[in-house]
Automatic annotation (TrEMBL):
It comes from Gelatiniphilus marinus. Belongs to the TonB-dependent receptor family. Its main location: membrane. InterPro entries: Beta-barrel_TonB_sf, FecR_C, Plug_dom, Plug_dom_sf, TonB-dep_rcpt-like. This is TonB-dependent receptor plug domain-containing protein.
Length: 785
């Protein structure tokens, strides 16, 4: 990018800051209570704790600066009819005013140590978990809608080396090492448009909890992270609905009270790509289908033409039934679907022939839970879930008269009993039992030459977990420690997984944090061939067999897939005062049991089967400053060193991981004034490791490529600038319209996100480059009731 272009961005960021200085004339107007609370937090160095529904649609004036804190809380109480309780000299709980008879049971809310982490709707809790609430989400550069899996990529230590939500790398891990939960159900598909859009509708998602370390003991799997997406779980007898569209899809949702104690939540979203072709769709199509069967053919051979038809949809539903005040039943349903069909036409021997290839990807989820509140201290939840993932492809090679069928199916069933005991507001206990059965099958069927392979595996596990959480009376110390014990009957193996989260506040504005965990998982994604499943979704799920080398059973070679095991620890220091956050967190993580097939090698190790590990150490640094809720800016930087160790490869010498992004930097600014929100951001990171051909030792008579040292070089640095803007207006007393515009990759930077090499017909080495999205605009219009 030119210096002139960079200068424009910094000028715009400066202009946004100047606008902030001219926004002081609005003090006596009534504003959203959320805005007023932020100003008071900055002015008096306090923190408010509240449920979003409590302050929804509430407005107040900005109090005079000469008032004491007690006077301010008194004024707010009169204006909003809410109760403001000063828990200590720093924390204020906001509750709905209730009759005296209902106010006897006052509980301390979980402490939010950092509000508006990057933007509104993102907070960080004192146990290290980051919470995202799409309902109150502000705006981020390049996003005009609260896409869950795109949003978390703004967090330090989280990125996607290929710009997709189906390949999110958290602290050096691969995407399959993230546990994605939708209302407690494990999901095996995360994206629409084969990874460019999140598969989960943000407008029916109440809260998303992201844990990179120190994970609560109730969670198994997910050795890199937990991404826990939760739908609303309380009946409030309020109707809510909305709908909208952008240049890729349209959606509607509704929260419908059926009776006083029942509620139905429904939503549906569908692409418009098969109905109307938009410029955004063309750009997405070019990005996702490059280097796939839809583009990898020579038009000079038999004049092949390919016409594709693609669409996606998702449907969610949740039924809530409060049998009594103490007994609650919940039913959940989710269907995520991607479908692609393309017709291959060719003139062979003066005869026109046409064959239809197709790809289908679906994740169906069903859940049932029953919660019983035995008393004010003890509650239990019994939950039964089923997740069914299905990836099917039929690929016709019209030139070679070949048909290939590939299937990857997962059935994940689980039963869980969770027990919560609140001794008081300072001590909480959590424990339970979970049974999981996962069955995965893989089919490959070729007609010419005739070949068929069908592999099916099942793994069952029994888990017991227990955890205690202690919060000191002055809210300065928070300790959470627990253990999860997993038993795998198939392997006669017991694994203990201790978890620790320690947070200590000192000097009022500093917080020291220690997190640690041991985790394991029995599922992984592998790549057999880069052109599997039409080259679009070439990763397939497999189950651990706990083998560490190839074994032969009934004449078949069984490839090793060990149980993945991880160890991680981190130490962090956070400073938070006057809306200035400075955060630094160093971490060390090691993962054992990875296989070369799960790492996506495209060099000399592409067809090698070996078991090894990776070790990553790094630091995440963040500076975030907010100015009177009008302007917010942040700078994040991550440094990490991520190396593989495979005893059988590279003479056992460690070499860079495929996801070893040594340096990553992000600079963003957000300007909010009344109903207008603007965001501008820069993203830069060092290039992905790559392996170059060794031309000096290349044998022209050999059908293989000679390579230099693995991952000894890097692609060019990645750079991208994004912007977005939204404007909301009241259409009626109960309806609000929101119009949004975003531009991804403003300067149309050509970022090479992957390079590999192949041989042409004359055995010449040819480089193949995968290019990121170019400049991509999008427009959205929504109406919420």
């Amino acid at each position: 990018m030119s210096r002139k272009g960079t200068g424009y961005i910094f000028i715009l960021l400066f202009f946004l800051n100047v606008l902030n200085l001219n926004a002081q004339t609005i003090q006596k107007e009534k504003h959203s209570l959320t805005v007023v609370l932020k100003i008071i937090e900055t002015r008096y160095n306090i923190s408010f704790s509240y449920a979003d529904a409590t302050i929804q649609n509430k407005k107040a004036t900005i109090p005079d600066e000469n008032l004491s804190l007690d006077d301010v809380l008194y004024v707010l109480k009169k204006e909003t009819k809410l109760d403001f309780e000063l828990l200590d000299n720093r924390f204020v709980a906001i509750k709905i005013n209730k009759p005296l008879s209902l106010q006897n049971n006052i509980q301390r809310l979980d402490e939010v140590i950092i509000t508006n982490y990057l933007t509104t709707g993102i907070t960080k809790l004192n146990d290290g978990i980051i919470t995202i609430k799409p309902e109150t989400f502000g705006i981020l550069p390049g996003l005009i809608e609260p896409d869950v899996l795109q949003t978390i990529q703004s967090l330090p230590g989280v990125l996607s080396i290929d710009e997709t939500v189906s390949n999110i790398n958290i602290r050096g891990g691969t995407h399959d090492q993230n546990l994605l939960l939708w209302d407690g159900i494990k999901m095996y598909q995360s994206g629409h448009f084969f990874g460019l859009i999140s598969a989960f509708n943000p407008y029916t998602t109440k809260q998303v909890n992201v844990s990179k370390n120190g994970t609560p003991a109730k969670y198994g799997d997910g050795i890199s992270s937990i991404i826990d997406m939760q739908m609303p779980n309380k009946i409030d007898n309020k109707f809510k609905a909305g709908g909208g569209f952008n240049l890729i899809n349209a959606d509607v949702f509704a929260k419908i009270p059926l009776t006083q104690n029942t509620e139905l939540q429904i939503s549906t979203r569908r692409s418009v790509t098969d109905l109307i072709v938009t410029p955004t769709y063309d750009l997405y199509k070019k990005r996702v289908f490059q280097d796939s069967d839809l583009t990898n053919f020579n038009r000079n051979d038999n004049a092949i033409d390919k016409n594709e038809a693609f669409y996606f949809y998702d449907i969610t539903a949740k039924f809530l039934y409060d049998i009594t005040k103490k007994d609650k039943i919940r039913l959940q349903f989710l269907n995520v679907n991607n479908k692609l069909n393309y017709e291959e036409q060719a003139n062979i021997n003066d005869r026109n022939e046409a064959l239809n290839s197709k790809l289908s990807q679906q994740n169906l989820a069903l859940g049932f839970s029953y919660t019983r509140d035995w008393n004010s201290k003890l509650s239990t939840t019994a939950q039964v879930n089923v997740s069914n993932y299905d990836l099917d492809a039929t690929n016709f090679d019209i030139i070679n008269n070949q048909r290939l069928i590939q299937e990857n199916k997962v059935i994940d069933g689980s039963a869980k009993l969770d027990i919560n005991y609140k001794h008081n507001s300072l001590l909480k206990l959590n424990g339970g039992y979970q049974f999981i059965e996962v069955g995965i099958c893989n089919l490959e069927d070729v007609n010419n030459p005739i070949f068929r392979s069908y592999i099916r595996d099942v793994v069952r596990s029994h888990s017991l977990y227990a955890e205690a959480a202690f919060l000191s009376n002055n809210a300065k110390t928070n300790i959470k420690f627990g253990n999860r014990t997993n038993y795998f009957p198939k392997f006669n193996m017991v694994l203990n997984e201790p978890r620790l989260s320690l947070s200590q506040r000192f000097f009022n504005y500093f917080r020291f944090e220690i997190l640690g965990e041991l985790k394991s998982q029995t599922t992984a994604q592998i790549i057999d061939l880069q052109n599997d499943f039409l080259g679009i979704e070439n990763r397939r799920w497999v189950l651990s067999n706990n083998n560490k080398e190839v074994i032969t059973i009934n004449g078949k070679n069984i490839q090793p897939v060990p149980i993945l095991k991880s160890k991680q620890t981190s130490i962090g220091v956070h400073y938070n005062k006057n809306k200035l956050l400075v955060s630094a967190e160093g971490y060390l993580k090691k993962v054992d049991g990875i296989t070369t097939r799960s790492q996506g090698f495209q060099n000399q190790y592409q067809f090698v089967n070996s078991v090894g590990s990776y070790k990553i150490k790094g630091i995440d640094f963040l500076v975030n400053k907010q100015f009177n809720t009008i302007f917010s800016t942040w700078l994040s930087y991550s440094y990490s060193k991520n190396n593989y160790t495979f005893p059988d490869l590279n003479s056992g010498i460690s070499f860079p991981n495929n996801t070893d992004i040594r340096h990553a930097l992000a600079l963003s600014g957000i300007y909010t004034y009344n109903d207008i929100k603007l965001a501008l951001g820069l993203n830069w990171h060092s290039g992905k490791p790559t392996t170059l051909p060794d031309y000096a030792n290349d044998d022209p008579n050999d059908n293989t490529i000679a390579y230099a040292l693995p991952n000894a070089n890097n692609l060019n640095d990645y750079f991208r600038a994004d912007c977005s803007a939204t404007y909301s207006l009241d259409v009626t007393d109960t309806a609000t319209a929101i119009v949004g515009l975003s531009v991804w990759n403003i300067f149309n930077r050509k970022n090479i996100i992957n390079t590999y090499y192949t041989l042409d017909a004359d055995k010449n080495v040819i480089p193949i480059e995968n290019i990121s999205l170019g400049i991509t605009p999008n427009v959205s219009v929504r109406v919420n009731f």
